[in-house]
User: Which sequence fits this backbone?
């Protein structure tokens, strides 16, 4: 690539940035995305147990049952709703509570008499995330309360084997540490693919792409310019979001190297931009591009390990998702930002992202000229 | 002329500004009715603005516009008067729907004006016959030639018998033959309906000569009115063109010089362009059929021919944009190849359609191209200044190119094409829409380039006086070159007085003209039927018929794009598969390894217990602490277990040994679940140990806690996920489909039809929405079949309830897309806005993974005001809990409430006039 080629790429990129700057509605949306959206996604959604809605049918109405109910406290649980047994089905059907606890009549008396009265814990299993974890919390809280009531010690009798669990990288399992960064990744993905792909279609619809091709410019220069310019804009937003929103406002402790992560992001932007142009060469018009974008972005976001863990997915999905650069990017982000991994750990992910990006770039290049004749307004 | 006729329009003190630039300055004008009024003037003097104002397409900023005796500022009056006005905006076929056929385009306008089927069909037949478009009924508008597009536009404008027909440069870019037919058509129409007023802007002075009454404009002001004859006498000009020039202010007049072309001296230094048997086919249509010609260096070579005869295609082959199917093209002796950058540096190309960056300013466009052609940095500034001066672009330097009048944009395109001082210029109709003075000016530049610098110029044009300026011309028709030679030679061969006559004679000989002319001279029947039924009753209020006409058109456009339809329907199915199987809240296959410092049978038993669980996958043992750290750091292990030395012995001695467990908390949900598993298994293991030792199971808990998992007893993700996929899929795809509905019309220009027809805002929005609601419902039924038969997730409740809820939901989601579409100005912003505003809330805030009630801060409120939250409860309720309608009244009410709210915001954001 000679000097003149670089100069062209630079010029075309500057043009791209000017177009971006001219679209004020788009800028407003981007600003909201990298501030408000990240904040509300990170702060609002807790995957750990927070404010779980609970209802209690207290047929005992004893000091002990009161004590059990009083033990379900924020932040894990909302203040329990006291209901009648007959209302329980309705409340659960409407999804108003995830848990409904029934404390039977004479519970305290029976317990004191050495019987083993049963507490019933109804769980709405359609709330997949909350139900399992919440059931565990309720069991252990009740066990503690009852042990203390009976023996004066929360732990009960000392078990033959002790278990000391320690959580690494996020000791208190605060979910917004995770949610904030994953939202940044989702946005990077979405914005890059849309900006680059739609900018390509727009140039085709307005005939400017044809115009560029009669000048001493090559398709590679045009593509690279689109990617670097939009990528730069997104990278700046990412840096801002990470430093100011995630670290500053949300107060997330980032263990790893932010520069290394930004390098990874830059490689990823190339990859996502290439996918964007590739989609742009397949679609004949903007409406088609919109649909293709949705079909691409949803699997990328939902299945790359940022929403649910990869290893829970069927093997075939895991294998297919190895062809998506997002999978490597999510892994790279988790490794660098939470586990403080260095380049020697994540270099494979760098390579994965770059190779997939190069493949899409090559495919887009191969379709570049042909796509000109496809334009349909 | 104007004597007894009532006024059709009166403008009082009308002013209009675009940012810094004044388009119209306190214009006072009275337009006589029942006649043909022509608007003449250079580019960018406000002709188009004036027409748009009178048509009601644009809102006046100051002053008062009366049309048919009422004030256009009054919305009620505007609604009432709009059916009497028809408006054809500037640009070939800009207000047509390109994917629809000729007949469907006209039909749409008929429906819009409330005509019934019989009336429409009679009128369409009549109009298509009159315009000679009848043989092309089924052809899509995109595939029509420029002249045919303009005729089709005219049909669309005339379908409702307007009393005022407003045409903005209708014949710009149209070949002489089609132009002649076009005006014959207008004359026929006027003969049939003598009361009709016609208001035309034109750049052709010979056309204006034939109009009844003229308005000459310059720089946003009226500089003269009256008949052509009156203008000529008043100014003492021999021709209208001269009269017009004399009307201009002194300094503008000085710019004009009579064009003189020095004869070309043939230096015999070879060919600039050699085309040998060039052929191009699109499918089975041959656009260019074995075309050969040669152009000498320094020559000005004109390319003439009707619209759609293959001129543009030939030019594209010469630039390397289109590879020829047969034959070859040589530029300066070298074959044209797509990848050859060297030849491109010597060529300047200007395409027919404006193809510069509309969002960049004039100065930025010039600067960009100068740099892309690698002018030395110190030359860029002076060169841009030079071009800006010689093309008269100075006043527009800081304006975005998109907002400029057509003529100014053409000048900018030209300036860009010559920025690098190329040796060869290929110009495709460069002067279409450019006023006579600027045209002469431009030709003076071309002549200078050709005669002084030896630049070769290959130019296509519809102006015969321009063809006369060329050294040689070639005449093309239906993909073949009919004749070529100097203008004088061609005239001589046909014995014609003018080149135009010779041109038509050639075409008639080739058969094309006779065919088209015959069609266009079909007498325009007075169509008593049409006239009798007259105007449809105009209702100022909401009209179902108009709304349905929009739906009908939108549905047709959707059907014309089967790829989009298929992707929308099949895409949902594919996504349902991928997500239904892939998104699982089950945490399984956690990778774990043990650091066993004891290596006793007891320690191995503990590890094997965990390894045997389906939740964990056993990885090779860890040797030391450093390895444990490393393998957790690189993400290999989700869980590590450390068994202390002497564990086995301590256990046997009852010393309560402690096992250490490390859990990867990078993904909190997974970490939390893994910790839960480990604790549970640990307890079970202790119970098992004790049972083995003592024969009875010990009580770890002082009481039983009986767990009852409801609705999804076996805790299978799929029962929870499949119903949850419906809210996801039925928002993303429907919203993205409607997201471009309005903004695309804004970007491509057909929004004008909304501005100038009686179409209400609500009719327009709901009409657009309807087909997409239908597609979304179809998609819903396919997804239901998939859920029940392929995923085997049964619907425990009533399908009817679910269907009704879905109908409300998809209406809401399509409304969200439309709202984004009315809010944004570009398609990119609309796509992005819809994606960002639907995806995040649906995935995160609607209760998919976390119940809405457990959300905090803004997320909670977004969740409360997001339709997917309610639909998710509804879906899960009907699918897994067998809920009935009465259980779900809150959800139904909420979903129903979103629809009027969203629609009201869209209506408020949608402007009925351009501002």
Assistant:
């Amino acid at each position: 690539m000679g000097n003149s080629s670089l100069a062209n790429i630079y010029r075309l990129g500057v043009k791209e940035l000017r177009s971006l700057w001219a679209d004020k509605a788009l800028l407003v949306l981007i600003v909201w995305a990298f501030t408000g959206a990240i904040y509300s996604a990170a702060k609002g959604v807790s995957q750990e147990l927070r404010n779980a809605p609970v209802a209690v049918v207290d047929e005992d109405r004893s000091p002990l049952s009161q004590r059990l109910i009083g033990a379900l406290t924020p932040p894990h649980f909302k203040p329990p709703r006291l209901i009648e047994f007959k209302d329980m089905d309705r409340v659960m059907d409407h999804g108003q509570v995830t848990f409904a606890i029934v404390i039977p009549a004479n519970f305290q008396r029976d317990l004191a008499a050495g019987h083993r009265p049963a507490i019933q814990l109804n769980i709405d299993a359609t709330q997949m995330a909350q139900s399992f974890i919440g059931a565990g919390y309720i069991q252990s809280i009740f066990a503690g309360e009852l042990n203390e009531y009976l023996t004066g010690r929360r732990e009960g009798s000392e078990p033959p084997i002790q278990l000391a669990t320690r959580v690494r990288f996020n000791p208190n399992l605060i979910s917004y540490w995770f949610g904030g960064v994953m939202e940044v990744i989702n946005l990077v993905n979405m914005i890059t693919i849309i900006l680059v792909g739609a900018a390509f279609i727009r140039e085709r619809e307005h005939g400017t792409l044809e115009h560029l091709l009669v000048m001493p410019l090559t398709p590679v220069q045009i593509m690279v310019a689109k990617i670097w310019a939009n990528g730069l804009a997104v990278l700046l937003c990412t840096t801002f979001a990470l430093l100011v929103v995630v670290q500053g406002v949300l107060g997330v402790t980032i263990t790893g190297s932010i520069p290394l992560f930004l390098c990874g992001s830059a490689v990823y932007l190339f990859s996502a931009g290439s996918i964007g142009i590739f989609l742009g060469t397949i679609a004949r018009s903007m409406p088609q591009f919109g649909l293709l974008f949705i079909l691409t972005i949803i699997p990328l976001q939902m299945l790359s390990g940022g929403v649910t863990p990869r290893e829970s997915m069927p093997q075939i999905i895991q294998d297919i998702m190895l062809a998506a650069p997002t999978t490597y990017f999510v892994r790279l982000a988790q490794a660098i930002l939470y586990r403080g991994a260095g380049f020697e750990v994540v270099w494979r992910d760098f390579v994965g992202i770059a190779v997939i990006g190069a493949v899409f770039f090559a495919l887009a290049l191969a379709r570049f000229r042909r796509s000109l004749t496809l334009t349909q307004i | 002329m104007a004597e007894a006729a009532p006024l059709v329009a009166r403008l009082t003190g009308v002013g209009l500004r675009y940012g810094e630039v004044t388009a119209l300055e306190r214009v006072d004008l009275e337009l006589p009715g029942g006649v043909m009024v022509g608007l003449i003037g250079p580019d960018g003097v406000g002709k188009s603005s004036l027409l748009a104002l009178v048509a009601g397409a644009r809102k006046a900023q100051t002053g008062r516009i009366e049309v048919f005796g009422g004030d256009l500022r009054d919305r009620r009056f505007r609604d009432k008067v709009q059916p009497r006005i028809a408006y054809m905006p500037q640009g070939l076929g800009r207000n047509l729907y390109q994917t629809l056929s000729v007949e469907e385009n006209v039909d749409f306008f008929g429906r819009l004006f409330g005509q019934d089927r019989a009336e429409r069909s009679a009128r369409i037949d009549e109009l298509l016959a009159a315009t000679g478009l009848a043989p092309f009924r089924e052809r899509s508008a995109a595939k029509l030639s420029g002249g045919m597009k303009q005729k089709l536009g005219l049909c669309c404008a005339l379908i409702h018998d307007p009393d005022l027909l407003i045409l903005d440069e209708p014949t710009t870019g149209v070949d002489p033959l089609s132009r002649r037919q076009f005006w014959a058509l207008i004359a026929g129409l006027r003969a049939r309906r003598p009361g009709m007023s016609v208001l035309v802007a034109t750049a052709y002075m010979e056309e204006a000569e034939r109009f009844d009454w003229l308005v000459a404009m310059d720089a946003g002001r009226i500089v003269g009115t009256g008949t052509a004859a009156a203008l000529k006498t008043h100014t003492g000009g021999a021709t209208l063109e001269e009269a017009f020039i004399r009307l201009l202010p002194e300094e503008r007049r000085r710019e004009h010089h009579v064009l003189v072309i020095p004869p070309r001296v043939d230096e015999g230094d070879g060919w600039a362009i050699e085309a040998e048997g060039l052929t191009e086919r699109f499918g089975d249509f041959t656009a260019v059929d074995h075309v050969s010609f040669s152009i000498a260096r320094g020559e000005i070579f004109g390319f003439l021919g009707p619209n759609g005869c293959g001129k543009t295609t030939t030019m594209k082959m010469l630039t390397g944009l289109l590879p020829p199917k047969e034959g070859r093209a040589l530029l300066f002796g070298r074959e044209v190849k797509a990848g050859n950058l060297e030849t491109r540096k010597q060529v300047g190309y200007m395409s027919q359609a404006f193809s510069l960056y509309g969002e960049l300013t004039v100065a930025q466009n010039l600067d960009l191209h100068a740099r892309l052609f690698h002018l030395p940095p110190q030359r860029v500034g002076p060169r841009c200044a030079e071009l800006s001066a010689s093309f008269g672009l100075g006043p527009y330097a800081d304006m975005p190119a998109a907002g400029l009048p057509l003529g100014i944009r053409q000048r900018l395109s030209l300036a860009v094409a010559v920025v690098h001082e190329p040796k060869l210029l290929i110009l495709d109709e460069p002067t279409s829409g450019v006023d006579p003075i600027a045209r002469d000016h431009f030709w003076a530049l071309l002549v200078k380039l050709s005669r002084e610098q030896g630049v070769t110029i290959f130019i296509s044009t519809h102006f015969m006086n321009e063809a006369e300026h060329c050294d040689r011309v070639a005449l093309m028709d239906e993909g073949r070159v009919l004749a070529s030679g100097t203008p004088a030679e061609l005239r001589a061969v046909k014995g014609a007085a003018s080149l135009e006559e010779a041109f038509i004679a050639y075409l008639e000989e080739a058969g094309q003209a006779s065919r088209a002319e015959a069609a266009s001279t079909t007498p325009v029947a007075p169509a008593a039927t049409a006239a009798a039924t007259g105007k449809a009753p105009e209702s100022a209020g909401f009209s179902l018929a108009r709304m349905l006409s929009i739906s009908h058109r939108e549905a047709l456009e959707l059907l014309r794009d089967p790829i989009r339809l298929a992707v929308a329907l099949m895409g949902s199915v594919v996504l349902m598969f991928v997500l239904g199987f892939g998104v699982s809240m089950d945490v399984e296959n956690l990778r774990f390894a043990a650091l066993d410092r004891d290596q006793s049978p007891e320690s191995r038993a503990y590890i094997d217990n965990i390894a045997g669980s389906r939740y964990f996958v056993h990885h090779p043992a860890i040797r030391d602490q450093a390895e444990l750290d490393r393998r957790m750091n690189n993400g290999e292990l989700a869980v590590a277990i450390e068994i202390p030395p002497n564990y086995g012995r301590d256990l046997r001695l009852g010393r309560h040994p402690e096992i250490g467990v490390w859990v990867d908390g990078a993904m909190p949900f997974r970490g939390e679940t893994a910790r839960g598993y480990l604790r549970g298994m640990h307890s079970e293991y202790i119970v098992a140990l004790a049972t083995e030792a003592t024969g009875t199971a010990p009580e770890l808990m002082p009481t039983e806690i009986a767990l009852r998992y409801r609705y999804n007893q076996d805790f299978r993700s799929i029962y929870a996920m499949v119903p949850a996929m419906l809210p996801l899929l039925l928002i993303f795809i429907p919203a993205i489909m409607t997201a471009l509905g309005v903004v695309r019309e804004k970007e491509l220009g057909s929004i004008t039809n909304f501005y100038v027809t009686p179409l209400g805002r609500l009719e327009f929005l709901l009409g657009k929405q309807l087909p997409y609601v239908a597609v979304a419902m179809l998609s819903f039924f396919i997804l239901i079949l998939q859920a029940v038969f392929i995923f085997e997730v049964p619907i425990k409740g009533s399908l009817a309830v679910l269907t009704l809820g879905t109908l409300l939901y998809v209406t809401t989601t399509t409304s969200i897309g439309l709202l984004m579409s009315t809010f944004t100005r570009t398609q990119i912003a609309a796509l992005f806005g819809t994606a960002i505003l639907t995806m995040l809330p649906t995935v995160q805030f609607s209760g998919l993974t976390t119940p809405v009630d457990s959300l905090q801060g803004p997320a909670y409120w977004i969740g409360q005001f997001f339709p997917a939250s309610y639909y998710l409860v509804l879906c899960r309720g009907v699918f897994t809990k067998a809920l009935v309608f009465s259980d779900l009244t809150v959800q139904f009410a909420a979903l129903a409430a979103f629809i009027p709210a969203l629609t009201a915001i869209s209506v408020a954001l949608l402007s009925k006039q351009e501002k």
Remarks:
- Residues 3-45+174-372 of chain A form one domain.
- The beta strands of chain A are 54-58, 81-82, 99-103, 118-124, 162-168.
